[in-house]
Specification:
TIM Barrel; Aldehyde Oxidoreductase, domain 3; 280 residues; three-stranded antiparallel sheet; six-stranded parallel sheet
């Protein structure tokens, strides 16, 4: 049941991915591919945290395979080293036709999870959430945000309306933080929180005066963050954003900081190496 539900939820995306890969362009080729069963071997060629197997399995099942995700579930979220392998069986026609889409999704998800896990480990000394952003690959947000979760981090917004975020462009358009805050308060959305991007200590003080409880300190230096934390009222959440990197993240693990928002989890994750081989 879970396999069918996941495939259905991802069906429109898979249709688009296979259209992009010319699934219907050469009907003669597709019709004449042998359907003999082959052993498929997923070969791990770099150190990684494997994720994205639900998308991998769904890619082949979209083409008519009958893989069970339960046969793969124990591998999801596990660390692997070069030389490790995962074997399963498929009809040759489906294996060959689905290979590239399935591998692209698996490699993208695994790349994000592996990179995310490094940030999570670097921040483990403090009770601070590592968050993703909306800086995702167009069309792959669901995959990449899934991968962030498998890497041990936390999702921020999936879309703009999940939380109203007052950014520099809003303040510029409305003329001030106060005016932008009034506009979003007028939305009268009972459950949607309002997050305010803050660009200076003076603006942070203004946010406190307005009763704003969720702020994002954008491109603050560690020293500026320490000053802001001293002013932090009870009940306020402070998120840090702006160019956070693996080699500098420890400078931002400051008591009073609740979350680190890191766009590079999804837009700059280094590639991992996985291949798929078939044998009669």
């Amino acid at each position: 049941m879970l396999d069918a539900l996941f495939l259905k939820s991802f069906e429109n995306d898979l249709k688009r991915f296979f259209e992009e890969d010319d699934l219907s362009r050469n009907s003669y080729y597709t019709a004449t591919l042998p359907c003999d069963e082959v052993t498929a071997t997923l070969k791990i060629k770099s150190p990684l945290l494997l994720s994205g197997l639900p998308f991998f399995v769904a890619s082949f099942n979209f083409l008519g395979a009958n893989l069970k995700y339960s046969d793969f579930e124990s591998f999801e979220g596990r660390r692997f080293k070069p030389g490790d392998e995962i074997k399963f069986k498929l009809p040759f026609a489906i294996a060959l036709t689905g290979e590239r889409v399935a591998l692209n999704l698996l490699q993208r998800s695994t790349s994000v999870s592996t990179y995310t896990s490094q940030f999570v480990e670097a921040a483990a000394s403090k009770r601070v959430h590592v968050l993703d952003t909306r800086k995702t690959t167009p069309g792959l947000r669901s995959v990449e945000k899934y991968a962030v979760r498998l890497g041990g981090a936390t999702n921020h917004r999936f879309g703009q309306a999940d939380a109203w975020m007052i950014k520099d462009n809003h303040k510029s358009f409305f003329g001030s933080l106060e005016a932008a805050w009034a506009h979003f308060k007028s939305m009268q959305s009972f459950y949607a929180p309002i997050v305010v991007e803050i660009h200076s200590l003076d603006e942070f003080q203004k946010a406190i005066e307005l009763g704003i409880t969720t702020v994002m300190l954008d491109n603050f230096t560690p020293d500026q963050i320490k000053e802001a934390v001293k002013l932090k009222p009870q009940g306020m959440t402070i998120e840090i954003s702006g160019g956070l990197k693996l080699d500098t993240i420890k400078n931002y693990l400051i008591d009073g900081v609740d979350a680190l928002s890191i766009g590079s989890l999804t837009h700059s994750a280094p590639h991992v190496d996985i291949s798929l081989k078939f044998k009669r």
